[in-house]
From TrEMBL:
<dbReference type="Pfam" id="PF22020">
    <property type="entry name" value="RlmL_1st"/>
</dbReference>
<dbReference type="InterPro" id="IPR054170">
    <property type="entry name" value="RlmL_1st"/>
</dbReference>
<dbReference type="InterPro" id="IPR029063">
    <property type="entry name" value="SAM-dependent_MTases_sf"/>
</dbReference>
<dbReference type="InterPro" id="IPR004114">
    <property type="entry name" value="THUMP_dom"/>
</dbReference>
<keyword id="KW-0489">Methyltransferase</keyword>
<keyword id="KW-0808">Transferase</keyword>
<dbReference type="InterPro" id="IPR000241">
    <property type="entry name" value="RlmKL-like_Mtase"/>
</dbReference>
<dbReference type="InterPro" id="IPR002052">
    <property type="entry name" value="DNA_methylase_N6_adenine_CS"/>
</dbReference>
<dbReference type="GO" id="GO:0070043">
    <property type="term" value="F:rRNA (guanine-N7-)-methyltransferase activity"/>
</dbReference>
<dbReference type="InterPro" id="IPR053943">
    <property type="entry name" value="RlmKL-like_Mtase_CS"/>
</dbReference>
<dbReference type="GO" id="GO:0003723">
    <property type="term" value="F:RNA binding"/>
</dbReference>
<dbReference type="Pfam" id="PF02926">
    <property type="entry name" value="THUMP"/>
</dbReference>
<feature type="domain" description="THUMP">
    <location>
        <begin position="71"/>
        <end position="182"/>
    </location>
</feature>
<keyword id="KW-0694">RNA-binding</keyword>
<dbReference type="GO" id="GO:0052915">
    <property type="term" value="F:23S rRNA (guanine(2445)-N(2))-methyltransferase activity"/>
</dbReference>
<protein>
    <submittedName>
        <fullName>RNA methylase</fullName>
        <ecNumber>2.1.1.173</ecNumber>
    </submittedName>
</protein>
<dbReference type="Pfam" id="PF01170">
    <property type="entry name" value="UPF0020"/>
</dbReference>
């Protein structure tokens, strides 16, 4: 599997210092594999409001971006699809961990944070020849600490649980890249979730399903297997033009060099851009009443509770919450869901042979005129569902290979 960090930046033989030009920073935005093109579209839409923001060519698992530090704040605030906004600090070729130590020691970290701030170093690797990538991460920490000790006589603390600053090391076969994490907590942690059910769908992947399916913020959405409500909440926030990061803080707020007046202005603009929603567009259901309560509670914290109707019910007995044929011209009805699998209720193999045809029968008999998008992690589902998708999109939910199956429902009954 190719890493999201592959072939993104030209190899450099020496560390790169933070540039003076405001539009000369390189960033990398990791995202779930399969949504890279949608992420590029998301960044390009933001670039319409910034002359300095430019999206690069998508690479498996992410997107390289160039822009200013204000653009980094804009990306953190508005983007729904990436997991982080990483600022490239420098890179080097390496033969052993000592080369990586020297890279870390030579970078001007004091331009970004001071010795009183605790740090954490994370590491990923693809085809690295090093015997221990954890030791490489330790040498990054040593290099940073030794630089501060040489400058100030003190070393910053390390705090893996609640760091002020996060550093990310990525090791390729011949070169190492060091990033400063401007996001802090992963961006899929929007700030509204207090509870989640078993195997929850992460927010950035939910946003990816919505983008890839063809659903638009004007369309009706029904998730009959809503769990903690991630899909309908993401959709409602998109329809309300509510920025993904409006209710949380970010790592760059603890860093030097970021214009906090500009940040406050960006956040206020985002607040002013929120649109009110009316009931009748977003619907959710789940067989577990506790999940319904969780969905409504999460929706309240997300600022979209009044727009979402949720009730307890078995998906096999589900009926359309609206008549698709009666919708105004240009508005479509979508059923988008992440059917339970693996640790949730495990409809794999023989179990899928039972559950999937029942779901297909419900869709065929009651949801004529609806568009359907189902995320299937058990690849046996494609056969067991016995419906013909117009398109299958390969996605990864973490390390789990999935298929997003897009199906246009017509009148009739399931085969079999």
């Amino acid at each position: 599997m190719q890493s999201p960090y592959s072939s993104v930046y030209k190899k450099r033989s020496a560390a790169v210092q933070p540039p003076a030009a405001p539009n000369a920073f390189d960033f990398f935005l990791p995202c779930p594999r399969g949504v890279e093109a949608a992420l590029a579209d998301e960044v390009k839409a933001l670039a319409e409001h910034s002359p300095t923001l430019r999206a690069g060519m998508p690479t498996p698992g992410g997107l390289p971006v160039q822009g200013s530090l204000t653009d980094a704040m804009r990306l953190n605030l508005h983007c729904r699809l990436p997991s982080r906004v990483l600022l490239l600090g420098g890179s080097c070729s390496y033969a052993d961990a000592e080369d990586i130590y020297h890279l870390a020691r030579d970078l001007a970290w004091e331009k970004w944070f001071d010795v009183t701030q605790a740090l954490r170093v994370d590491v990923t690797a693809e085809h690295s020849p090093l015997a221990s990538i954890k030791f490489a991460a330790l040498r990054v920490k040593d290099g940073i600490c030794d630089r501060f000790r040489a400058l100030t006589g003190e070393r910053p603390d390390v705090d893996t649980a609640h760091p002020d600053v996060r550093i990310h090391l990525h090791l390729r076969e011949a070169d190492a890249l060091l990033y400063l994490d401007t996001s802090g907590e992963p961006l899929f942690k929007r700030g509204w979730r207090s509870e989640h059910g078993a195997a929850p769908l992460k927010e950035h992947l939910a946003a990816g399903l919505l983008k890839l399916s063809g659903w638009t913020p004007d369309d009706v959405l029904f998730d009959p297997l809503c769990g903690s409500g991630t899909l309908v909440i993401e959709a409602a926030q998109m329809a309300a033009n509510r920025a993904a990061g409006l209710d949380r803080s970010f790592g760059f707020e603890a860093l030097q060099g970021f214009d906090m007046d500009a940040w406050n202005a960006l956040r206020e603009q985002a607040r002013q851009a929120v649109r009110p929603l009316t009931p009748g567009q977003f619907f959710a259901a789940d067989i577990d009443p506790a999940n319904v309560r969780m969905t409504l509670d999460n929706a309240r914290r997300a600022g979209v509770d009044g727009a979402i109707a949720a009730q307890a019910g078995d998906v096999i007995a589900a009926v359309p919450p609206v008549d698709a044929a009666a919708l105004p011209a240009g508005q479509a009805a979508w059923l988008i869901s992440n059917p339970p699998y693996n640790e949730r209720i495990a409809p794999e193999g023989e179990a899928a042979d039972d559950f999937a045809p029942q779901l297909a029968r419900t869709l065929k008999q009651r949801f004529a005129g609806w568009h359907v998008a189902l995320l299937a992690a058990d690849l046996h589902w494609d056969k067991a569902l016995r419906l013909k998708p117009r398109r299958r999109i390969v996605l990864f939910n973490g390390t789990i290979e999935c298929r997003l199956m897009l199906i246009d429902m017509v009148a009739g009954s399931a085969r079999g």
